[in-house]
Specification:
3 domains, 8-stranded antiparallel β-sheet, about 30% helix, alpha+beta, about 675 residues, about 10% strand, PH-domain like
Length: about 675
Amino acid sequence: MNEKKRLVQNFKSYINVSPKNNGEKNGSLQEVKPKLLNGELIVGAAHSVIMLTPLSEWDQGRFGSLFVTNYKLSFVPLESSPNDEYCQRNFLLGTYDVPLTAVGAVWLTDGGPSKRRRLMPYGDMPGKVKGLQIVCKNMKVLLFSFVNSPIDNGRKVAMALMHHAFPKRHDLLFAYEYKEPYYPTLPNDLNMFQRPSDWKRELERCECVHWRITCINGTSDAFMLTAGETLIVPSSVLDYNLMETARHFRSGRVPVWVWGRPEGAALLRSGELLQTEQSASTESVLLEQVRRSHPKLTPPYVIYLCGNSYSNNTSAVLPPLATLQSSYKKLVELCTPTTLSAFWMQDSQYYTYLESSRWLRYVANCLAFANDAAAHLADNVTTVLQEGDGVDYCAVVSCLTQLLLDPHCRSIAGFQSLVQKEWLALGHPFCDRLGLPRPGSPKESKETSAAQTAPVFLLFLDCVWQLTQQFPAAFAFSETYLTTLWDCVHNHLFDTFLFNCPRDRELAVGKSLIQRPVWDWGEQFSDADRALFHNPLYGVSSLAAPAHRMAGASQPSRLDRLEPCCCVAGVELWAVCYERWLAPLDVPGQGAVQAHVRHASTRHQINQLTEKLNSLSILNNRQSVSEEAAPSPPPLVPRFFPFSVGRSALPAAPPASAFDAGQLLDSQSLLNAPD
């Protein structure tokens, strides 16, 4: 115990250490503090806290102090460890820091993970808190014990955490307090879709001449309040007609252009029709204008993502948001077992639990809709996506369709531009879906907020990951990039995913909010960490075809179209995103990241040899190459690198007398599945 209380003198992490007082005795506890950002304040603290290792019933944990600030939850260990710098390094967050908006659920425990009771926001707090279990929105689990802490320390931390992690007002988020100046270094080819000129740039890139830009949505006559000021509509439609037509669509979401082909076909997004007497005729008139925007006057093809009154087929439609949220909760339960014994029990019935969540079924349905839309667009048929308010599944399927058809969207800057266009400029309600309070109004009731919460953006990222697995050389970004992006969605220091619509963002900027887009990755990560964002196989055409094409699937047609496998059997669980915190699965030298490291090393060697061959003459080329030292093999990395912990921090196998895990391994076990 005394050794754990001793502070290592050569500690070089982000932690600032200072003595508690001038009269402390040699060997007593010393005060540790987290690194604070500009505007960050400590609102709660507990000392002599034990951070337990999840899924380990024999680990003694680490001693340190636990802090709650107006930005994050931060555990500061008393002693340094090689594991502290093992995971993905972030300039703004330490190894054991979690942004408050990333906190999903807080559980009271008896000091360990066995018995627990959930704490609800603004609910009653017990007089004594022995331990806390925190389940984050990215499925990371944190365990803390206060058995050695001074009385009331645990309760104070729990109260501060529940108050600041679930704020009642939007302006209480840390983005409003962080006043550090921002100097953008965004790439030139990133289109933010914030001005009419940005939309004009996209219209010109797609070479669509039969469509026009209207800025009526930025005036007092705006009819689509949840979208930006700029919309692209058929050239033959007048603004007055748009205003009249919008009354018959949910949230005024008339069909608007988002992408197109020079040959004439276009991709449009729309909300559902309201049930009025004039709705059908109004839609017919507007679709006629869409037809006239096609040089060949081809009628548009309408895809009803959530079904309609004319179709009884409900097997292929996308679920209501409440159903999607229920599916996600089952997935979270599968990926966040509380004890090691619970992990082994779930593992023995892994595929049964996974199938019951229906998550992969919804992923496959999204891919099927996108493939259907891409097929019609490839045949030069204009396609209209219609769903609810036109802000959820429309964004998912529209983005996936463009990824299947447009190589520009598969680059990193192109993908980020795609998110800016479909999710931000056209108004996906991130506040409602992520469970954040709406700007300008108090937080809704528990029932209203729960009905609007759903991981729609995660569903989209999961679908994109499926495409990167099926087409390993077609995308410039890696699964590390997609996983990091999902983590950053819950970082309320950046404004990208903090608002429901562009109007709310503009009002917040008027109240001195400093816009800080998440796409400026240099704000958070080093060059070495950002190197993992890039796919080393990108552009290798011989590897661009997915594995399922070996079974007889068709080859890509014109437009460099990708044709994914859309059945449930053809998709898989995104292990790096969902299972990276499950230490028993984090084995070295396994998984896709090891192949990524090997491919990156090989590509680097190829580039080096190419440069040398270009710089050498024909006469001395053979001699120089023969003297070149043999390249060293790439290092072995854990399966979930760079998100995993160090190997020494992983729990050891349980003793045979304590628990016989081998008896539970059967055909459903994840550990028996091929990598």
